[in-house]
Design goal:
By secondary structure, this protein is α+β, with helices and mostly antiparallel strands. The chain has six helices and five strands, in the order βββββαααααα.
Length: 221
């Protein structure tokens, strides 16, 4: 094991660059020759099956170099944001509408596959569905948002944050807005906070068992 080749790559499970053992590697060259046996097309592919030395997670790395440029691909794809641990509660305990659980799943897939516009659109759809599920459809985003606040589901500060999320999703659909990774991080921070405050905090609060207060007996004089 100590004689095996090692390389430093990003580990999805550890969420950082870690040392990996190269379990298997193979190179493949794709080239075509034309005049005077000179290569007119050249692309080199290097496949590496790697195992994280920290957590044991296994992934496939593809390095390419040639006329099409140099880049790296990973399978599973690199994940800059993992699902929160409470996600399983959303699936089994919190959401009465499976559409919302599916949307959450699809948003994280879009993030993993580097599809920022689709992620922003999905976030917008998710927030809208959660509001309608909670307070009914008030016909417009503004009315839904106002009713969502008035019913006590969110605070005034959260309302302003949600409005920013909705505007970002609207811009991705209608104004060719392409969110950056920082933009998506901010959108997901807001969205996860809203979901957790509405669903998960209620679950955790219900689990808290407070013993009843004992009545003090009156002293006999």
């Amino acid at each position: 094991m100590n004689n095996m080749q090692k390389t430093k790559k990003y580990c999805n499970k550890c969420s950082q660059d870690t040392w990996h053992i190269v379990l298997f590697s193979k190179e493949y060259i794709d080239e075509d020759y034309f005049e005077n046996d000179r290569p007119q097309y050249y692309q080199e592919y290097k496949y590496s099956l790697i195992e994280c030395c920290g957590c044991g997670n296994i992934s496939l790395c593809l390095d390419t170099d040639g006329v099409e440029g140099s880049h790296k691909e990973y399978y599973p794809p690199l994940t800059f944001r993992r699902k929160p641990k409470w996600f399983i509660h959303i699936i089994w305990q919190s959401l009465t509408d499976n559409t919302n659980a599916d949307l959450i799943d699809e948003i994280y897939i879009a993030l993993k596959m580097n599809m920022p516009r689709l992620a922003a659109m999905g976030i917008r759809a998710l927030i809208e569905n959660i509001m309608i599920e909670s307070i009914g459809d008030q016909r417009t985003f503004d009315k839904n948002l106002n009713e969502f606040e008035s019913k006590g589901y969110i605070s005034k500060i959260q309302k302003e944050a949600i409005n920013s999320v909705l505007q970002a999703g609207h811009a991705a659909i209608h104004r060719k807005f392409k969110p950056t990774q920082d933009n998506l991080t901010q959108l997901m921070d807001i969205t996860e906070n809203i979901i957790e405050s509405i669903y998960i905090n209620k679950i955790n609060a219900d689990k808290i068992v407070v013993p009843p207060r004992h009545k003090q007996s009156k002293s006999v004089k």
